[in-house]
Amino acid sequence: MPTAAEFKTRFPEFSPVSDALVELVLAESDAAVGTNWLERDQPLAVNLLTAHNLSMEGEPERSKAIAEGRSVSNAQSGPVSSMKVGDVSVTYEGRSKSDQKAETVADEYRKTSYGARYLELMRKNFTGPLIV
Q1: Can you tell me the distance from the alpha carbon of 60 to that of 57, in angstroms, rounded to the nearest whole number?
Q2: Quick one: which of 28, 20, 22, 24 has its CA closest to 10?
Q3: Which of 32, 59, 99, 132 has its CA 20 to 30 A from that of 52?
Q4: Strands, E, within the chain: which ranges?
């Protein structure tokens, strides 16, 4: 499993995130990825899934806000629809129940560039049956 230092070297945008949090999410991602991947792809899969999960939790912006003494809310809902820099304001797209109907796991991964890359790598490692 990659370390927090290795993860932050590969994805320096997560440098503000504490090593403790990165290590926790790396462990979660490592368990989710499992051992059935090609050996050469497994560390990248763990890193990509970690980056995706951290992004979905609002990182690294959440850690930056905490470091700057700004208030942080974890009550986000949906993708960001607008941002404001002066006095920091972020608006999330709300989702009605009808919008939530048939979201697939692939749709969830596509919410971040890291998740999309993870999904692509997963498809390379787990292809469907071959018909000869």
Answers
A1: 9
A2: 22
A3: 99
A4: 80-84, 89-92
Q: Residue 1 and residue 93: Cα distance in Å, rounded?
A: 35
- 3 state SS of 102: coil
Residue 96: Cβ-neighbour burial (10 angstroms; 0-12, 13-18, 19+): exposed
Contacts of 70 (CB under 8 A, 6+ apart): 88
Name the pairing type of β-strands 89-92 and 80-84: antiparallel
Task: Report yes or no: 33 and 49 within 8 Å, Cβ to Cβ.
Answer: yes
For the chain (length 132 residues), average pLDDT per consecutive 10?
Answer: 96 96 97 93 97 95 88 60 65 55 79 95 82 68
Whole-angstrom CA distances from 48 to 74, 79, 109, 116 are 22, 19, 10, 9
Q: Tell me, what amino acid is at 25? A: V
Contact 56, 111 (CB under 8 A): yes
Q: Is the dihedral of CA 107, 115, 65, 26 positive or negative?
A: positive
